[in-house]
Fold these 2 entries.
Entry 1:
Amino acid sequence: MTVTDNGVNVQALLDAREALKGAPEAAQFTWRATAKWDKGVHSTTTIENFYGLGAEQSHKARTEFAADHPEVFAAEDNGITPIEYLLVGLASCLTAGVASVAQNRGVQLRSVTAVVEGNHDIRGILGDPDVRNGYNDIKVTFDIDADASKEDIEAIVAQSQKRSAVFDALTNPTDVTVQVA
Amino acid sequence: MGGSVTTVVVGAGHAGLAASHFLRERGVDHVVLERGLVANSWRTERWDSLRLLTPNWLSRLPGQDYDGDDPDGYMTMAEVVAFIERFAAGAPVRTGVNVTSVRRTGEGFAVGDLRCRSVVIASGACNVPVVPGFGDLGVHQVTPFDYHNPDKLPDGGVLVVGASATGVQLAAELRASGRHVVLSVGEHTRMPRRHRGRDVLWWMHETGLWAQRYDEVDDLDRARRLPSPQLAGGADVDLNTLTGAGVELVGRLAAVRDGVALFSGGLRNVCSLADLKANRMLAGFDEWAGLADRVVLPPTRVPEKPRLRIDLGSGEISTIVWATGFRPDYSWLDLPVLDDKGRLRHDGGVTGIPGLYALGLPVLRRRRSTFLHGIEDDARYVVDHLIRTLRGTFDQSVSEAR
């Protein structure tokens, strides 16, 4: 018998779920990012620390993310567009979910590709009050090669959405406070 | 009231009366306390058109089968009340007694000022409608407890929130009355009324799925929280029939901000999940029947662009119907048996307090626990356990006396 190995430690996740049942305060995480303006619409956002399990935590390394606008927006294109970072978040979150759910269901993955497209009418950000600023819709297309039927793969993808933090954050409103320190 | 009795059953619905049936059979001295009349919530907390989801031939209580002339029909509420009243004959019911406290005493329990050795909580799973607290929204708001029929609502469009049996039935009826209806759909349980010409509950029953024990269910927590299936006692009602009738589907109601209802963009996924699960269930039935071909449900048709917001001040919606579920009320129970979410902790109806039992909760001992015909096994088991516990206590007291 071959053992499913998608590289996800599902047991640790299930154990964590059990452990946190008795300690909901340890489940409270705060994720942090710090952006510094460079020039024009170019900025650099740094992520290193976060809070969780009742203590300050650090990533193994600090990561920097450059954001800018493309040249068709009359900018220098020093990095991807902020709204594209949402696609990064959604694609990586759903893909992680697919791997985890597949692992939990004993499905060996060979390859997973997600193509994410967000349709955006930019008249909104240019000031047209009848057009929203953000995406009008987002479409994710998974191409998955795995030891499972099409139906099982669809169920894994559906479950991945059901448990996705970014899918939730994008599909449901979130209360956002922006203030000047 | 005062006095003492061996066992107090709280609630004279089908569950409490089933407990009484077995307590009488076993000769245990008891009373059934009922805040209103027998089958009270069936009389007072249901909308006019509601019918039982179970076909008549499967609607039975301990020692009482359906004996009418429409075995494939579904009982109206008046018929359910009559069916339960008939079952109550001979039960020691005290009606109009509202239990406001249950405490432990040295010997057992005090239910109000009535002393007893054991208590069976059969006060129902659906005492309080669960309504998200959005406050005053400038529109009329009703729960299924206040809703009777479309004529009783103010004129205008209706937003039905929730797509369980209640939500889909009310959306269908409101739409049929000619109103503009929007249905907000979160996670739901799709279930066709019939599969291969037979009632879906026939399949549940015959395959043994309905009798699956609580300790055999994969994820019991989830099974106990599952929204009621999209069934009606009679016609087919699912999201596709509703769309066909002109009901507009939107995602789960996520928030109300500045008088605007905001709906989740996850509608497509909750529909996919429900379709996959329903088809998996049907495939299981077919496998059980040894049928190689598959009957696959047509996919749920999701609007091309589901609306994400409705301005509640625009006049489009005059009423919100909250079909967002129910919860039991245990405010009268002064015993440490609730979990951190206010749910009764029990193992198949047996709580951690010796002598305290529950009946009539979702998947209490079997998947069918909350359905009329599901109470018999549960009540028999619980009463048997109750009697064994009483005997244990009695034996102990006898040996102590010696």
Note: Chain B is about 30% helix and 20% strand.
Entry 2:
Amino acid sequence: MNADTAAARVENATKVYGSGDTTVTALDDVTISFERGKFTAIMGPSGSGKSTLLHCVAGLDDLTGGSVFIGSVRLGDLKDKELTLLRREKVGFIFQAFNLIPTLDAAENITLPVNIAGRDADPAWFDTVVDTVGLRDRLTHRPSELSGGQQQRVAAARALVSRPEIVFADEPSGNLDSKSSAELLGFMRRAVDEFGQTIVMVTHDAHAAAFADRVVFLADGRQSGELADPTADQILEYLKSLGG
Amino acid sequence: MLKLALKGVLAHKVRLAMTAVAIVLGVAFVSGTYVFTDSITRSFEQLFRDANAGVDLVVQGVSDFGTTVPRIDEGILANVKAVPGVEVAAPSVSGSAQIVAPAPCEKGPGADPAKPCPIGGNGPPTLGFSYVPEGVGLTTFNLTEGDWPAAADDVLVNAHTAEAGHLAVGDVVDVITPAGVEPFHISGIASFGEDDSLMGATLAVFGFDTAQRIFDSEGQISSISVVLDPLLDPTVVQAQISSFLPDGVEVITGADQTENNLDEFASGIGFINTILLVIAGVAVFVGAFLIQNTFRIIVAQRTRELAMLRAIGATARQTTTMVILEALFVGVVASAIGIGVGVLIAFGLKSAFGAFGFGLPATALVIAPRTIIVGFVVGIVVTLGSTLVPARKAAQVPPIAALRDVDTPPRSLGRRIAVGVGVTGLGLLMLLVGLFVTFDNALSVVGLGALVTFVGVSLVAPLIARGFARWVGGPMARTGVAGRLAQENAMRRPRRTASTASALMIGVALVSVIAVFSASAKAGVADVFREQFSTDFQVRLTGFSDPTAAGLPPALGAALRTLPEVSVVVTDRFGDFRFAGDTEAGFLLAVDGPYDQVVHIDMVAGSPADLGPGDALVGRADSERLGIRVGDTVTIQFASLVTADLRVVGIYEDTAIGLPLVIDYTTYEQHIAFRLDRFVYVKAAAGVDLEQARVAITAVTDAYPSAAVTDTEELIGDLESQIDGLLNLLVVLLAFAIIIALLGIVNTLALSISERKREIGLLRAVGMQRRQVRRMVRWEAVLIALFGGVLGLAVGLALGIALVVAVGEGLRLTIPGGQLFTYLIAAGLGGVLAAAIPARRGAKLDILDAIAYE
């Protein structure tokens, strides 16, 4: 894998919180590439730095040392305004919760990033995305009228509708029951297979990670290993070996 | 609970600080008013005491009401002097005398620099006194330069006047007196009291004979100051003197004179006090809305915390107590600060008065215990009162709310409508009763009615807030996502939006009432003058003046009568009087000349042309009330309590003149000492071009620097700008209430933004620029402000129209559309201003903080 095929990558990423005695090193010299058109999962125990890594790659947080690239753009060089524009144009997000603006209906939430940019969504693509996530009959509902699974699917549709270079998902199924979770992850899988979308997802759930093409393991702020096209059982085995 | 309440206060420092600002401003206005008026009163009290300090008895004309003290016969002086035990009996004559500073002098922009400047006037009196050697030491005049007036053309001026006109001993100045304009020679300068600050009044002292001549008081004096042998009982001498005084003349002790002076002063200052307190009350009322809103939002945001307390065993009573204790703490601290700020305001007011030429004595500010008590009571009562509803809400939080999000169901819409409409109706009813039914304290009922109406409208407002945001926010939403979100944000908590807007509504409503009233008054004035003045020109004092205290020398009218270019010259004057048997005093109009030829009068009966000495014209309302017809005798009473029987020669429609009685100058001068004319009406002679007549008139008035010549349209213009000036002053004072309301918008937005931290974080994460976040907050503020503005205009229009209809006489209902629209735009801009800080805070939110999980 080289720089050309990576949708995003981090080089020697270090992130230190606090100062003096209270210093916490969340990322310790991490170098990872996220291949274009692939679904990558990042796993690790609490405090392993997986969420910090995601926030830094997504341009929501900055590194203490090292660099982050989205495509060929180095994020450290960007001002807040440019970073915001980059997120708007090239990045999609699915968070664990609080994904949606409660005052807007589902359709408005989906087109939010495009509308923020002052554009209208491409209607054909919008329809494709909406049908893929199965929200056709829920478009005029507000978030409070949607189930948790539906809300996350709206968030996923929003992440895709602007055709971003890369979608970051932070425990997207963390609050969902297993059925809704499988539906959401299945949809994300299809987005990769059918639309060639690049997705990076942080999770602690082996079943969720099993939907990915590649699983990267973090521990204590460092990469501790990875698996390609794993099954849930393989992942659990691997985690057990780490813990053992 | 006390500990928890204190922690609660500390945890919500910023939002409570905003609440506190509202209380601080309200309390500061109240206490500042008291400190200011107390200080003025105290210093003048001292001045009056000093002024009468050496005087045992004062002999003067009786003046039961009104402002002009009648003169007394000079012959009384000899009789008083002859009373055993009288050591000094110093006569005094007083009247109006305005010093004119020679050109070049300081004057307003646009004035002719070559013209001289009359000093003072425009409100503060221009007083003239006489000097007698035996009177020195009986007044608080301290000679600082030169000498007392000795020669017939000598004048002594007070230091303030000398300073204002850049005058020095030896200068020659013109002085405007009832006798005309004459040059005088400044013999000396004296200060009145310690620092010669008399709220802008000017003083001139003349020799005794000169004073009698120029004040048109030959053979008469205003008062006699008596000093007694200190061994004698003053009451005995007082009785002795009293025994030979004619009717209408009294002898009182120096101490009583001081009390009279103080009472008179207190009623003058009381008016200012009342106006300031009413405006302070408005500020406090608006503040109450802000406080109530803040506490409600805080309680809502702390639902989980309160529920947790309930879950671990706190009673509903305890959670209520906690909220109330917090409010109490805020109220006490804010009131204390407010009183401190009030002292600063009083200091500022004093300086401002000084800067505008109304110099006040430089005594220390008086902070009476009453001021502090009222400040605390107002601050604490308002804070606690406004917290009652939020505190009750706190009690209703169920313990289960700690575990999941429960929205306490809002009260039923029907009940809310019923209560809101009921309260609004009650308020309007009180207003109408106060306006249209005559009884004591009607004005207070009107004020209370207005307050109740405001509360009622604020109760109904949440019901229309959503619809308003939908319609008015529509175009806003089409400008982009920021506008759309702002619209939704304004709609999602209609009660909050409505409550915030209601605070602004009050200020906007009051300025709208003023706008409607002043437009109607201007239209009314224009109508009356256009319809009734058949004169070509009027001559009158420039600027604002009290027609019973200032005016034109009669010599001016006399000079105009000699002009060949004019055919008719009529002068008029105001005077105090009452119909015999009445308790309320009013003004009468005295006219000299064929009044009906210069003013069109609608007569019910009789003719104004018949008016001669001993005759009267009576207004229709009073003639009907008193059962008077033409040919009857009407008995009237003057301020000296002397009565006069006048023959009624005509009855006129009240709107024609606006005063209930018209008499001629002969009758007037028999009973009233005032000698200055209000208007001189001039009609050009037949065949004389108006421009030519004006040139001739102006040539005469040029010698009278305080006189202005106008035609009717110019007069209307002048009066309109005077009305504007007065009412603009009120609007400026009401700005205080509007600033508090804008603070309310700042507060609500700040609280809403902290509530919506996650949303804003999400918006930022998916690519919203800081600029767009700011725009979103700003649009919401504009929506709230416009809502407040529209409500205010609606209520203000209703109140204004009711007020104009109730007053009726002299007004023509006029809605100043352009001005009201400007207010609405200003409200919107106020919203933009109020949004500045919350918008910045919103835009600066850290995205990671905002989207972080618990």
Note: Chain A touches chain B at residues 55, 58, 60-61, 80-81, 84-85, 87-89, 91-93, 95-104, 108, 112-113, 115-118, 158 (CB under 8 Å).
